[in-house]
Structure formats: structure tokens, C-alpha cells
Amino acid sequence: MGARRITRLVPPDRRVKGLGGARGRRLLQVRKLVAPILQVPITLRTATGLELRITGDPVDEQIAQHVLGPHRDEYFPAHGGRIPAAPCILDIGGHHGLYAAAALHEYPGSRIICVEPSANALPDLRANLKLNGFESRARVVNAALAAHSGKALLRHTAEGSWGASLYEDDAVTDSSEDVTLVPLDEVLRGDRPDILKCNAEGAEYSLFDQLADSDLRPAFMVVMVHPEFGDLDRLEHQAESMGYELSRHGPDHHPAFHMWKNRAPS
């Protein structure tokens, strides 16, 4: 029986797709079919040599689809030389390191600062960096971005591991963990990012307040905005006033923006 015919027998909601032809996706398909048992990590390998470790967390597959599949240009758009050849990358919301590994692979000679508050995510983040030999090009900050240093509760919800937030209501919180808060200047320690990716469940509002008060202007930013945690219109205005051209992607309830620095601030 051909592979396509077998695929048609798999219920649509249990098919593995959108992984850009990476090797390992058939093992991932088998694992998905026998879920929740035998949820061992699966390594995907692209034709260009990037390796991504997909844990039993279903969120990993969704992120892999974003960085490998037909929508990967939402993270890695054509830049026409507007990004330096060896950029400094700031990844706010590092999660399991799938974006970090893909970004370091995409931009040879780059280095990355991964900001991830959850201690539970760190082993998987470091595993994806190690799998690709990227440990020396990455610095991991185990903290949540905030306006001031301190401590807070990171609240976990039924949305999955990428939905943990400092700003969720107690009513939808399944569990929580104590995390450290750090402002942007402590995260950077003098580094100046050329690329910034932020998917941090509400921390984007503090990020833009701090960017607006500084002279930091990354060449390119991809920012996932969570309107339930702040003022989306104000954030867009801040970006435009700093000289960014914005294009909007994704659904209205979780919009993502490409922001290119291309003019003097107003």
C-alpha cells in the first residue's frame, strides 16, 4: 500500500503535515497515532541539516510546522540585505528552543539570547541547541521579561506549554511556578539585537515600553501579540513611532506582526 494511500486512512485531525519534508516525520506520524502511549522524543532533520527534537508535548509539533512548513516565512522572511550577515538575535519566549535552533541555522554566524521563564522548558531548549552544536552561540536567560527585577507567578493553563503567562486569571490557571523577572537591559547585558522574536503571552507590552525608552531598534522584529493582556493599538502606535513599517499576519485573536526598521522615528 502506497504512503499516500496510508495517509488517507489516517483521520485528518491525527495527520502529521506541514514539516517541509523533514526526515523523521513518519516516525512522528506513528507516535501521533498511538498517543498518549509511547510519546518518546522524535528528531526531525531537514535537507539542509537542521535537527529539531520534538518532545511528547503536542505544542512542539505545531511550532515545528511554523518554522519548517509553508508558513516559515512568518519567522524567516526574505530580507533583501536589511539584516546583518551575522546578527544578534533576541528570542523572548524561548520555549523548547525550536525557533532558536532554526534561527541559528538560518543565519550562519549569528548568536542568540533565549529568554524563557519556565524551568520545565529549559532541558528541552538546551537539548535542541546541543543537537545542532549551537551551545556556544546561545545564551539562555531563565527569567520572564518585565519592567523591573523581582519575582512573580507564571501561570499554566489548559492552552498548553506555550500558553503560560504572568497575566492569566486564577480561574483558568491549572498550576503555577515561581519565576524571576528581569528588565530588558539586564537580559541584554550590553548586546544589541538585530533580530527580535517575541511570543511571550503578554510580555510584549513591557518589551515595547522598554524599547521606546531606549535607543535599541532591531532591524527586524516578529511579534506575536496577545490582545487579551494589553492595548494592541498602543503597541502598534509605539512601533510606528519608533520608525517601523508593520505588516500583520495570523488571526485577529492572536495577531503576529513583521516590523521592519526603515525610517527615522517620529
Can you characterise this structure?
The chain has a domain of 184 residues: Rossmann fold (3-Layer(aba) Sandwich), CATH 3.40.50. A 7-stranded mixed sheet has the order 5-4-3-9-10-12-11, with helices on both faces. It has a 3-stranded mixed sheet with strand order 6-8-7. It starts with a helix and ends in a 5-residue tail after the last strand. Helix 4 links the parallel strand 3 and strand 4. The mean pLDDT is 91. Helix 7 runs parallel beside helix 8. With 266 residues, the chain is an alpha/beta fold. The radius of gyration is 19 Å and the shape is globular.
Summarize the structure.
The protein is of the alpha/beta class. It is 27% helix and 23% strand. The strands form 3 sheets. It has a 7-stranded mixed sheet with strand order 5-4-3-9-10-12-11, with helices on both faces.
N-to-C span: 63 Å
Q: Helical stretch count?
A: 8
* SSE string: HHEEHEHEHEEEEHEHEHEE
User: Beta-strand level of the residues, as a percent range?
Assistant: 15-25%
Bulk shape: globular
Mean pLDDT: 91
Strand segment count: 12
Low-confidence stretches: none
Here the CATH topology of the domain at 72-79 and 86-261 equals Rossmann fold
